[in-house]
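Here is one chain, start to finish.
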Amino acid sequence: MAKLNFCELWDAAKTLSIVEQERLRELLDALLARKGEPLSADDEFAIGLLRDGIISEIPPPLSEADLERHRNWEPIKIEGKPLSETIIEERR
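Its structure:
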């Protein structure tokens, strides 16, 4: 594939539909978020999913507060028989 210069790329981007331009912007934002660092395999995978339209955005990395909430998570205790048994009984 021939390498495009900036002007050719700009002209090509202008011919895209609004939806395609938005997808292109998401891809460029994902690349810019790396601040020049090489892309990890996970980054490449996520960008590929975004490029192919499988996902609409790449979620930001989890914050320390999110990680702490996850580490401290405890299931809700309920009384009685297990919820799975109740669901099976209601399906009968």
